Amino acid sequence: MQSVRNDIHTSSIPALCQSCESRHQGICAALNAQQLSALSKHTRRVHHHAGDQLLADAEPITSYGNVLHGVVKLSKILEDGRQQVVGLQFAPDLLGRLFANESRVTAEAASDVDICMIPKLALEALVRQNPELEHRVMLQTLRELDEARDWMVTLGRKTAAEKVASFLYLIASHIDPGGEVTTFDLPLSRADIGDFLGLTIETVSRQMSKLKADNVIEIENYRHVLVPDLARLRVRCG
């Protein structure tokens, strides 16, 4: 009987949501089948290639994006063109500042990304009606605040070696949480990594080479990274 009830419950969930890897994570985990079905009538899944701009600074917000796959780069650009990378988003993060009228950052696809786009009014109405959804959005916001504070320590107090190790650990721990052996493609260029860490390109490359020489990481084809022991990498973060 339990199996029958589960089949009925599952069958009422939209097919697109059933095949979504992020359905049981992030904001969608707070929604029941009926809410998912209602919301899916307004959503659309889009694919962006690395380098595509997703949102511009000061651009009016008309929709939010649930990151399904890939990495999104958040940055601030000064009037003279200088750029500062201020954050990265991974699945199942919510792209866009809830209840804000305009964006405060520029969002760009750091790698190929898949995003489920949700109209602003539809999601905000659902948040007002669903305390659990509101709670999940709040938890994500607080997590991002904690990560921003941790990154302030990284930028302000850590050595160049510790900064590069911390960056790699950030990627590895989000790509494969709890994993011991992790592989990933670097979502940022050496120049962007330098912007993110406040280091020169040469320093970034030198510190990565040192981590490779010490067998903390392996690098193939310049961008593919293998971390054989995440605990060893974490120690190098300081």
Brief summary:
The chain has 238 residues and is α+β, with helices and mostly antiparallel strands.
Element layout with pairings:
Blueprint: H1 2-11, H2 15-18, H3 33-40, E1 44-48, E2 53-55, E3 63-69, E4 71-77, E5 83-90, E6 94-95, E7 106-109, E8 113-119, H4 120-129, H5 131-157, H6 160-175, E9 182-185, H7 190-197, H8 201-213, E10 218-220, E11 224-227, H9 230-235
Antiparallel strand pairs: 1-8, 2-7, 3-6, 3-8, 4-5, 4-7, 9-11, 10-11
Helix pairs in contact: 4-5, 6-8, 7-8
Overall 3D geometry? globular
Low-confidence stretches: 1-10
**Domain count:** 2
* Major sheet description: 4 strands, antiparallel
C-alpha Rg, in Å?
19 Å
Pfam family, one: cNMP_binding
InterPro entries: cNMP-bd_dom, cNMP-bd_dom_sf, Env_Response_Regulators, HTH_CRP, RmlC-like_jellyroll, Tscrpt_reg_HTH_Crp-type_CS, WH-like_DNA-bd_sf, WH_DNA-bd_sf
Organism: Devosia psychrophila
Keywords: DNA-binding, Transcription, Transcription regulation
Give structural notes.
- This protein has 238 residues and is an alpha+beta fold.
- The chain folds into two domains: 2-142, Jelly Rolls (Sandwich), CATH 2.60.120; 158-235, Winged helix-like DNA-binding domain superfamily/Winged helix DNA-binding domain (Arc Repressor Mutant, subunit A), CATH 1.10.10.10.
- The chain has nine helices and eleven strands.
- It has helices spanning 2-11, 15-18, 33-40, 120-129, 131-157, 160-175, 190-197, 201-213, 230-235, and strands spanning 44-48, 53-55, 63-69, 71-77, 83-90, 94-95, 106-109, 113-119, 182-185, 218-220, 224-227.
- The strands form three sheets. It has a four-stranded antiparallel beta sheet. A four-stranded antiparallel beta sheet has the order 2-7-4-5. The chain has a three-stranded antiparallel beta sheet with strand order 9-11-10, with helices on one face.
- A hairpin with a 3-residue loop joins β10 and β11.
- The longest helix is centred in the middle third of the chain and has 27 residues, at 131-157.
- It is globular, with a radius of gyration of 19 Å.
- The model is unreliable at 1-10 (pLDDT under 50).
